[in-house]
Design goal:
With 239 residues, the chain is an alpha/beta fold. The protein contains eight helices and seven strands; from the N terminus they run H-E-H-E-H-E-E-H-E-H-E-E-H-H-H.
């Protein structure tokens, strides 16, 4: 009896949707391996390398892959970040998700020689500005930023392609392609970001020694988000 097709949550479904079809892909920090199992089951990828720094996580991934009958299409490797990939592993796509922004930054910087021009799917719980800056630093550019809401919190999933593109400071802090997203979660996500920045601003203003340059920058970013939210709402109303 064939295993039942895997159902993904909203965040992993978004990651899945941003994946290109490819012969070989790698999922870094694969954990439970639900994403790669779905990618293989549905034919989006033909073969995948799954890595994790945790032996227990890799054992869980192995169990999932066996349950789904995908062992012939998967190579499980123990190791940190991109280090388990070899020079002969020419991936079309590489995903690094479910970590903090600083961790993803360190993975990309230390393993940039393992990318070989693969497109990247990146999603962090924190510090997305670090990912945007790092993508530029390693000679890539972001062509898609998509928000989603899952299990009571917002997430942002980024796709990056080879080829560096200059980013302004505002694009690094707030995003660029994000504002071209057609996601129904875009306006709620921007409202959420605006509230986070507003709380941060109030804390900076009430500090015993306020940094007026940082306060001015936050004011500017909040104003920009307000303008974009108004623009998007007007577009919705006129469509």
């Amino acid at each position: 009896m064939a295993p039942r097709p895997l159902q993904l949550d909203s965040r992993l479904s978004l990651v899945f949707d941003l994946y290109d079809e490819c012969n070989l892909a790698a999922d870094i920090g694969t954990d439970h391996a639900r994403l790669p199992a779905a990618l293989l089951q549905r034919g989006r990828c033909r073969h995948m390398i799954l890595t994790d720094i945790s032996l227990d996580a890799l054992s869980n991934a192995r169990s999932e892959i066996i349950r789904c009958g995908l062992t012939d299409q998967v190579d499980l490797r123990l190791g940190d970040g991109l280090s388990p990939l070899s020079d002969s592993d020419i991936c079309g796509m590489i995903s690094v998700t479910g970590m903090g922004g600083r961790t993803i930054r360190d993975i990309l910087l230390s393993g940039r020689d393992k990318l070989h021009g693969a497109s990247l799917i990146l999603s962090a719980h924190t510090d997305c500005h670090l990912i945007r800056q790092t993508v530029s630093d390693i000679g890539y550019h972001i062509d898609s930023e998509e928000p989603c809401f899952d299990s009571g919190r917002y997430y942002l999933v980024l796709r990056a392609r080879p080829g560096s593109v200059h980013l302004s400071g505002r694009e690094i802090r707030l995003g660029g392609p994000l504002f071209r997203s057609s996601s129904p979660h875009l306006i709620p996500f921007l409202l959420h970001r605006k509230e986070i920045l507003s709380v941060r601003l109030r804390g900076m203003i009430s500090a015993s020694r306020p940094n007026h340059e940082s306060i001015s920058l936050l004011h500017s970013d909040i104003k920009y988000l307000e303008q974009m939210i108004d623009l998007l709402r007007n577009r919705e109303a006129s469509s």
